[in-house]
Write a structure and sequence with these properties.
2 strands, 2 domains, High-Potential Iron-Sulfur Protein, Chain A, two-stranded antiparallel ribbon, mainly alpha, binds iron/sulfur cluster
């Protein structure tokens, strides 16, 4: 006789599709699930209750042109200083504030850039990843 059938005969109230889980009862599972829900809710409340801890775009550090990634992409915080010989793709008037990757608002002096996560770039800056905003 298969073990599941034998177990069902011994305890006909235990659903045969459930795996044996020691001496745990259904209330043990429910209470653990409830406790986990409470912990998740508490963490959510703590996160909401401390809005000062959120990182706002304006709080992000400014991208340093000497940062290795910035250097590799030819970033400068002043597009007027771009070396046109080194970066022939540069066109006059191109700047972060009219680049597709710029996430700041119109008029912002600095803003996040999707290329340099966690940093702000100068609205008047430029790098060779520049793509004109449509
Ligand atoms: S990708 Fe665009 S917004 Fe970002 S640094 Fe380069 S030119 Fe500026």
């Amino acid at each position: 006789m298969p073990w599941a059938d034998l177990r069902a005969r011994i305890n006909p109230y235990r659903p045969s599709g459930l795996a044996y889980q020691g001496d745990k009862t259904m209330s043990d599972h429910v209470s653990r699930r409830d406790a986990l829900k409470k912990v998740v809710l508490m963490l959510g409340v703590v996160a909401v209750a401390r809005p000062g801890q959120r990182v706002h775009a304006a709080d992000l550090p400014h991208l340093d042109p000497t940062d290795p990634t910035a250097k590799a992409l030819g970033y400068t915080s002043d597009a007027k200083t771009v070396d046109a010989k080194a970066f022939p793709q540069y066109k006059a008037g191109s700047a972060c504030n009219n680049c597709l990757q710029f996430q700041g608002k119109a008029g912002d002096a600095w803003g996040p850039c999707s290329i340099f996560a966690g940093k702000q770039v100068n609205a008047n800056g430029w790098c060779q990843v520049y793509v004109k905003k449509a």
